[in-house]
Fold this protein.
Amino acid sequence: MLKRGGVWYAKWTDATGKRCRERIEASSKAQAKALADELEVEARRHRNLARRARNGLPPRPEDLTGTFADLCTWWLDHRCPEASRSGERQRLGKYVVSKPVGAVPLAALGSPHLDELLHNAESAGASAASVNKLRSVLHTVFSKAKKAGRWVGENPVASTERRKVARRIYATLRAEEVPLLLAEVPPEWRSLFAAALWTGMRRGELFALRKSDVDLALGTITVQRSHQRDTTKGGHADLIPIAAPLLPMLKHQVEHAPGSLVFPAADGSQRSPEADPQKILRTALARAGLVEGYEHVCRWCGHKERHADNEQRYCPKCLKRTNGTGKLLAQPRGRPVAEGDRAADALPRFAPHDRNAASPRRRRRAPRSAPAAPPRRAHDHRNLRPPGRRRSARRRRNLARAGSKLGPNGPHPPGRDRKRPRQDRER
């Protein structure tokens, strides 16, 4: 460490054994020494890593650099599949990158940190399946990092506990209910919904299904694509049979649909992944009378309630979220519940929202009164002021002749005497 011309320089030996000198930004000798020590420690760590690599030894845990959030970001950018990158970036950003655990250095990271992370996610309201999915993603992150040399030792996620997920039986449509549902679906979506009901294909697989994948002679469908990908979500192709009620609809689509897709958009292009046929399904189920209730989901806090009708209701958890006028901002929306789901009888019942009722008006505040004027004193009135000092006739004559600061001739110019010199008066 030295100083030349008011600039501090640090000297150290790099990983190859070469002496280096670099200019550092420091305002004092103590700060320059601290920065030089950090450079020396980093160079020593690189030398040790290079020595262990030459001898065929793996790096030690204390030699790791970066934080937990940096490791997750590296996995998202270089090892995460393209199809899952958007969803996993949102998941890790919510539970790791934006949390204090993301700032933990990798050299100090262990299983207790990850166990606490999963416990906090569960306490925040995440379901057991969501916690297990987060655990699986983190296990993959450390596995890929270990293969790339960014992590050493055992996988810290392996020792964490896996949550138990309760098995549920989902309600499905009966065969006689399918025509009732399809009658309420819009014509441009009817064939796609029929294929989804009779084959069980995913949305992306239906959007990417090509006419060459449908063999009407053999009565089979080859499922091998999803959205813009050349493979399915499971990573394998399947051959499924065509049900008898679906065969005429598929034949019509193959013969009359524009383009090379079986279920294209109106212009013949592939439907966007942002398309939301779930809303059309809910509306069709409600119109067909195949629901026994509605699940109301709050747009603000996500609170859910089940009711027999689809009338809008105020969320009981957002009653305090008002805009000052008494009008509630949270208006839940109704979502039909399939027949077979038991309604939550323990939930409190609330009166439905009356749209025709007059909204409560805001109570007006009384206008602020002007501050009271101070009491007037007797001498404030000009007619009641005490008589002042009277000027003499000679003084009034001199002021009128020479002018004064308040006289008719304007203010007296500064730096000059109002009185004329003696010699001028004698003249």
Remarks:
- The radius of gyration is 41 Å.
- The first strand starts at residue 2 and ends at 4.
